[in-house]
Amino acid sequence: MTPFTVVTGLACALARDNVDTDQIIPARFLRKPRDMAAGGYAPYLFRDLAEPVLQPGCVALLSGANFGCGSSREGAVYALIDAGVRCAVARGFGDIFAGNAARNGLLTVVLDEVPMLGGEITVDLLKCAVTFADGTQRGFAIDPALRRALLEGIDEIGRTLALGDAIARFNARDGVARPWRMPARSVGTLDAPADVTARGPGDVSRDAEASARFD
């Protein structure tokens, strides 16, 4: 993920509640590969809405309550990211959408009231504050672990890999304390059972008889 510290750029507003993921990107476009050379899913954003939503250079999308409700499609987050949107500010988000956003580096900011103002916006994750085009500044709350992940640009896999040394030390200690917890050999090196390695002519007929009983 791209680290998120302070982002300044254009804000675009979609002043409505309950924008679902099918409005963000219609399902029919998710049958196509996410071709990054062609802009990923960005060309299909808000395709079925009558009014244009995003303008070139948009880094923040402003909306109402329950943004991203509906189906769990992660493509809705991909489409926003592919279009260059780094942050969504709304009065609330669909739970699954918010989780998908967190895993892909899209900051979701929940405010009681969202000024639907275009123009320049600054989203400061260091200070947990948003400054709108009219100079209004609003603070926001965010889970500390998610904030750290966004600041560092590390997703869940990255956080796990960062604990590699600690995991190795635990496995070494646990292997001594509980040697029975792991097989002596890996699956690929297990010795074949005796009845497999020493098969006689009669084994084939016995196998056939056993198979017939279960047909």
- What portion of residues belong to β-strands? 15-25%
Q: How do the helices and strands follow one another from N- to C-terminus?
A: EHEHEHEEEEHHHHH
Share in helix: 25-40%
CATH topology of the largest domain: Aconitase, domain 4
The CATH superfamily label of the largest domain reads Aconitase, domain 4
Structural class: alpha/beta
Q: Kindly report how far apart the N and C termini lie.
A: 53 Å
Poorly predicted regions are 192-199, 210-215
**Count of alpha and pi helical runs:** 8
Question: What's the helix and strand layout?
Answer:
Elements: E1 6-14, H1 21-24, E2 58-63, H2 75-82, E3 87-90, H3 95-104, E4 107-110, E5 119-124, E6 129-131, E7 137-139, H4 144-152, H5 156-162, H6 164-177, H7 194-197, H8 201-214
Parallel strand pairs: 1-2, 2-3, 3-4
Antiparallel strand pairs: 1-5, 5-6, 6-7
Q: Can you describe this structure?
A:
- With 215 residues, this protein is α/β, with parallel strands linked by helices.
- The chain folds into 2 domains: 6-154, Aconitase, domain 4; 164-214, no CATH class.
- It is 33% helix and 16% strand.
- The chain contains 8 helices and 7 strands.
- It has a 7-stranded mixed β-sheet with strand order 4-3-2-1-5-6-7, with helices on one face.
- Strand 2, helix 2 and strand 3 (87-90) form a beta-alpha-beta unit.
- Helix 2 (75-82) crosses helix 3.
- The N and C termini lie far apart (53 Å).
- The model is unreliable at 192-199 and 210-215 (pLDDT under 50).
